[in-house]
Write a structure and sequence with these properties.
With 102 residues, the protein is an alpha+beta fold. It has a four-stranded antiparallel β-sheet with strand order 2-3-1-4. The protein is globular, with a radius of gyration of 13 Å. The N and C termini lie close together (6 Å). The mean pLDDT is 95.
């Protein structure tokens, strides 16, 4: 049974003109970074539209969420802001209900 989650982040990313493919590659690489984070129990990258992307990630507790924010993915977001995308919007969320993966 999957570990339940209580908190997460919803991240919105707007690619700079002509950098859409690079942002997609960046997000695919992000998956490899979170594989080593035991407290990141859900992580999904997606595309809203031609240049708009997002990440949803979830954690069992706030300590895991903060470790993730201060870890490799948070660093990568900071390092690529202004190069691949505009300043991301990172919204903390509290999970109310979830259909857990098997």
């Amino acid at each position: 049974m999957a570990e339940p989650v209580t908190v997460g982040f919803l991240v919105r990313i707007e690619a700079l003109p002509g950098r859409e493919t690079d942002v997609e590659d960046f997000l695919q690489h992000g998956l490899t970074l979170v594989q080593d984070e035991p407290a990141t129990v859900r992580w999904v990258a997606f595309r809203f539209g031609p240049s708009s992307f997002g990440i949803y990630d979830a954690f069992p507790d706030d300590a895991g969420r903060q470790r993730h924010l201060n870890g490799p993915v948070g660093q990568a977001l900071a390092e690529n802001t202004g190069t691949l995308f505009e300043q991301p919007t990172i919204e903390p969320v509290h999970v109310i209900a979830e259909k857990s993966p098997i």
